Amino acid sequence: MAAKLIDGKAVSQKIKMQVKTRVEKLAQQGIVPGLAVVLVGEDSASLTYVKNKKKTCEALGMRSDLHQFPDTLTEQELLAKIDELNSDPGIHGILVQLPLPQQIDEFKVITAISPEKDVDGFHPISVGNMMIGKDAFLPCTPHGIMELLAHYGIDPAGKHAVVIGRSNIVGKPIGQLLLQKDATVTYCHSKTKDLANFTAQADILIAAIGRAKFIDRTFIKPGAVIIDVGMNRDENGKLCGDVDFEDVQETASFVTPVPGGVGPMTIAMLMENTLESAEKGLAKTKQA
Ligand SMILES: Nc1nc2c(c(=O)[nH]1)N[C@@H](CN(C=O)c1ccc(C(=O)N[C@@H](CCC(=O)O)C(=O)O)cc1)CN2
């Protein structure tokens, strides 16, 4: 039997419609959620993502300002821009598109963003709060994965989740979020010996490796849920994930496609975080 498709495009559409309704409600109180997106350099994929973020904001009735700079921008200039956005009352979320050019220290930039406007959930304060299960903006891709699992009735409790990848924006946080839902979590990475030994024990497998179609049926346990976070090009230049989607069909129970799986959820969760930041701001104003 073929695995069930986890349709990130459809689920993200539903979430965006819910966000739109809440944005309309907020507008009645005179608040328009505002997202500032900062792009440094000319990376074509990054440019596509930021344009998509802006377009989505606008479609949902939110404000979006794109601040685009050449790749010669200095770290100080970028920090000055972030300072300005931190104190702009019309901006509820600040996002610096990654990766940044090498002359700019990513960590310095992320920590310069006010945690109250950190809609990417990358600030160490957001990460710390997430780790201990306190209120925080959750990083958009891991948050999107958790939403997908919930939407399809996949409860991580008591399951063995294996995460391949240990990046700060996907691998590490998704493991923590699964742990909070009572999964038993194993992290694998580039130095893991005998990877298949671990992946074959996974009830939920998160593939964030960065190698086209690397995970095939030989790596997975029958009935496993496979979440593909990869974004690669195959030998014909076609977009594909870390999982060989066709090959795992008869073995997996659920699988996300690429494109149309985790990717669209990233943008939807960013919209939700920006809206929530604006809602929190309003609640604070009312309390004062
Ligand atoms: N500041 C950030 N930088 C980066 C993030 C992030 O969350 N915050 N994540 C990625 C890039 N990214 C968003 O920024 C992103 C990547 C992919 C998609 C997506 O929808 N992909 C589609 C396919 C798109 C295509 O056809 O090329 C899909 O998978 O269906 C959305 C957002 C790194 N940087």
Automatic annotation (TrEMBL):
Entry-linked Pfam families: THF_DHG_CYH (PF00763), THF_DHG_CYH_C (PF02882)
CDD domains, sorted: NAD_bind_m-THF_DH_Cyclohyd
EC number: 1.5.1.5, 3.5.4.9
GO molecular function terms noted in the UniProt entry: methenyltetrahydrofolate cyclohydrolase activity; methylenetetrahydrofolate dehydrogenase (NADP+) activity
Residues covered by the Tetrahydrofolate dehydrogenase/cyclohydrolase catalytic domain: 6-120
Residues annotated as binding NADP(+): G165, R166, S167
Pathway the protein acts in: One-carbon metabolism; tetrahydrofolate interconversion
Phosphoprotein listed as a keyword: no
Transmembrane spans: none
Role: Catalyzes the oxidation of 5,10-methylenetetrahydrofolate to 5,10-methenyltetrahydrofolate and then the hydrolysis of 5,10-methenyltetrahydrofolate to 10-formyltetrahydrofolate.
UniProt-recorded name of the protein: Bifunctional protein FolD
Organism encoding this protein: Planococcus wigleyi
Organism ancestry: Bacteria, Bacillati, Bacillota, Bacilli, Bacillales
Gene field: folD
